[in-house]
């Protein structure tokens, strides 16, 4: 890993700018500091020689746009997509440093957005600035699209894309991530899995009851547990009918590349304190799962009493947040319909489904990359 000081020597002001950005809260889920952060990003772009502009759509967080035109190569345009919003900092207890402090300790910066995505954003801005300082030009036109609603599901990005289609036109996009692996090699991802995020809820009695009444009153938590149990097999396979219907297996070239990908299984297991992977897979199967595996994951489950000690309660309601990672071929709308059909056909018509987010996967064909 390059030392922070070294980075700062090559790209002056990188650390200061990142700290400045981290210190400005920008929690989209709570609309906390969003406007202020957009203005700050605008100032940072300007300082770095990038022409900034704040774009607006009614009811949406402002989108910060930036542009540098290349004199040497004006026919090509690269667009960086990033976001200035962050996830809420809660729970606050486990933080060793203030979430909006940008504390530097040794070779690390701590704070919300240090990674995902303020850190990545700053490195890109500083890279463009470094080109401008050294050459007075950039190798091709560069555009920045920096949105403020990514962490809440990019609700208005489609509307922004439609409205500013011409402005955002480009030959290629580099998505928000960008990191180096343990041997300092830059990692380039050629796609993203999609997501279907739902809340399943079921109501029992019209009020919480004493648990002795469980002989008569059905417990909604059990209903939900039973329903969830029909959705996923022990090896992680999604058991919903036709879930994988449109999915094509990875091509030969993809498999070859994936199997060559460096992935230290043992180190990964150590990092997460587990001794096996889902379904006991290893080697190439594990690498393929990372790249092309679909999931059904319980992101949260709430019902009854979860506090200290014991409370004999029969809850009136149970709620589960479930996220499905989707792979190319899966259409979120179709998958949602399949989920609803699954619940009905398994006798769980009383469970309501609320969809928060549905986004298809994207993958760049290796043949064109
Ligand atoms: Zn992100």
TrEMBL record:
GO molecular function, a single term: peptidase activity
A UniProt-annotated Pfam family: Peptidase_M20
Species assigned in the record: Cenarchaeum symbiosum (strain A)
GO biological process, one term: proteolysis
InterPro entries noted in UniProt: Cyt/Met_Dipeptidase (IPR051458), Peptidase_M20 (IPR002933)
Record-given protein name: Acetylornithine deacetylase/succinyl-diaminopimelate desuccinylase
Keyword Protease on entry: yes
Keywords, alphabetical: Hydrolase, Metal-binding, Protease
């Amino acid at each position: 890993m390059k030392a922070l000081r070294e980075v700062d020597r090559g790209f002056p002001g990188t650390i200061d700018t990142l700290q400045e950005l981290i210190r400005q809260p920008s929690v989209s889920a709570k609309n906390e500091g969003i406007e202020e952060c957009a203005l700050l990003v605008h100032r940072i772009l300007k300082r770095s020689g990038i022409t900034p502009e704040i774009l607006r759509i009614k009811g949406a967080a402002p989108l910060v746009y930036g542009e540098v035109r290349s004199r040497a190569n004006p026919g090509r345009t690269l667009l960086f997509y990033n976001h200035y919003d962050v996830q809420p900092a809660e729970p606050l207890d486990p933080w060793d440093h203030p979430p909006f402090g940008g504390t530097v300790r040794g070779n690390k910066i701590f704070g919300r957005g240090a990674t995902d995505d303020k850190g990545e954003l700053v490195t890109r801005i500083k890279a463009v600035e470094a080109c401008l300082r050294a050459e007075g030009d950039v190798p091709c036109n560069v555009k920045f699209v920096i949105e403020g609603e990514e962490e809440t599901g990019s609700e208005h990005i489609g509307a922004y894309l439609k409205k500013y289609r011409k402005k955002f036109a480009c030959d290629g996009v580099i998505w928000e991530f960008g990191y180096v692996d343990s041997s300092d090699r830059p990692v380039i991802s050629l796609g993203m899995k999609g997501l279907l995020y739902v809340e399943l809820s079921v109501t029992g009695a019209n009020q919480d009851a004493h648990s002795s009444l469980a002989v008569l009153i059905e417990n909604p938590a059990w209903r939900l547990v039973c329903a969830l149990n029909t959705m996923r097999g022990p090896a992680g396979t999604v058991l919903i009918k036709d879930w994988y219907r449109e999915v094509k297996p990875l091509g030969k070239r993809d498999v070859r590349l994936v199997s060559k990908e460096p992935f230290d299984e043992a180190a990964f297991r150590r990092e997460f304190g587990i001794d096996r992977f889902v379904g006991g897979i290893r080697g190439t199967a594990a690498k393929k799962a990372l790249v092309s595996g679909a999931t059904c994951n319980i992101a949260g489950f709430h019902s009854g009493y979860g506090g200290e000690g014991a409370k004999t309660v029969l809850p009136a309601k149970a709620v589960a947040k479930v996220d499905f990672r989707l792979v190319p071929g899966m259409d979120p709308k179709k998958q949602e319909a399949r989920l609803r059909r699954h619940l009905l056909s398994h006798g769980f018509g009383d469970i309501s489904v609320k969809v928060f987010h549905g986004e298809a996967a994207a993958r760049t064909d290796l043949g064109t990359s």
